[in-house]
Amino acid sequence: MTIRKNDLRIDEKRFWASMARSAEIGKGRTTGLSRLALGDSDKEMRDIFVGWCREAGLEVTVDRMGSIFARRPGRENDLPPVLVGSHLDTQIAAGNYDGILGVLGGLELIRSLNDAGIETRRPIELVDWANEEGARFNPPMLASGVFAGVHQLDWALGRADLKGVTYGSELQRIGYAGEAPVGGRKIDAYFELHIEQGPILDEKKIPVGVVTGGFATRGMKVKVKGETAHTGPTPMDRRRNALVGAAYLICALNEIGWRYHPEGGKSTCAQLEIWPNLTGILPEWSVVVMDFRHPTIEGVERMRQEVEAAIPEAAKKANVEMEIIETWRFGDEAFDPDCIALLRDAARTLDITYLDMQSQAGHDAYNMTRICPTAMLFAPCDKGISHNEAETMAPEDAFPGVNVLMHAVLARANR
Ligand SMILES: [Zn+2]
After folding, report:
1. How much is the pLDDT for 56?
2. Tell me: the pLDDT tens digits for 73-96?
């Protein structure tokens, strides 16, 4: 029996069973997941995922950054593949959906094409990008960044977690230091499904968001240099407390976020290192990790000027020195009009309502825009709660996105 293209749908039960299995690996404190990149639970999930890919007849390779690729051949197997996927790692206190939806949705669409006996002209590859979250190894989207030429391989392998353990040594330990070169090959297009991580789709009761681009985001690490001294006798005018400097800066950053709030801007400091972080001694240094984002590039650049002006002011106020030691950016990249059109067409074919929207979070797709036509779609999550153990979504909210993804990938792979 051949299935008419427009009748093709995923196997909802099988897909949701795979999502449920993933939710058992690396359980969080209460509900949800805590599956940090390259930890034991990440390894366990990878092993299961690789097993599923092989069962689906896919050829699995792992690259030197530990990203897993699973390939379904095309009729013209020398053509560059259509790549689909996201990430299986999670934040330290995460839900069960995040990028997992995009990886297991990609797997399900391939299983469904297999069931329907549908061949494609181009190969289709499924990817689980390593260390998307950056929760353990900074920066986020690390492996896709190397794949797209944003970062150098050796630099990325040398990134260390807070205990000083390097990315490269952890990859070896869990058995996922692959041999495939990272990137350097032609990709026809990249599609990524992800939960929205914001409240818009859930509030509007729209099942699919077609992502047209991202919020322009700038990040920086600022090192604050003070001096250790006794917390008792040292007079106020002789103190060089690195934590106080960091605190002034963090408050200034937060106020900048509020100033841009009416335009949709936002600012974040979510990580602070202090040394020695003990009572009785003033901190010698601290590192403030911060970012800020805005719907437009012009807007984020205005924010950047204000942040850069706030740094010397905070330093002066606390009698310390400050230096920007690292910067990064994402979200300026434009998604591909043809790939976006394929997602919209697929939604119309399936009679699924969609909304065009901007992504406010960072995604591996941003890196991929640098090397191939790229598009993303969002599925709603309950109240937009994400990076929280309470992150949840109803199965009925997940299926439309995976079906749209399948039809768009199929159309692109047959182009
Ligand atoms: Zn994610």
Report:
1. 98
2. 999 999 999 999 999 999 999 999
Distance 348 CA to ligand 1 centre (A): 26
How much is the pLDDT for 192? 98
H or E element, residue 327? strand 321-330
pTM above 0.85, yes or no: yes
Domains of the chain: 5-214+332-413 (3.40.630.10), 216-330 (3.30.70.360)
Q: What is the chain's length?
A: 415
Whole-number Å distance, alpha carbon 284 to ligand 1 midpoint, is 35
Write out residues in the chain with pLDDT < 70, as ranges. 1-5
Find the 3 Cα to ligand 1 centroid distance in Å. Answer: 33
Separation of 415 CA from ligand 1 center, angstroms?
29
Opening angle at CA 159, ends 23 and 133, nearest 5: 30
Q: Which residue has the tokens 């794949």?
A: 147
Q: What is the reported pLDDT for 348?
A: 96
Distance in Å, CA 189 to ligand 1 centroid: 19
DSSP for 29-92, please give it.
SSSSB---TTSHHHHHHHHHHHHHHHHTTPEEEEBTT--EEEEE--SSTTSPPEEEEE-----S
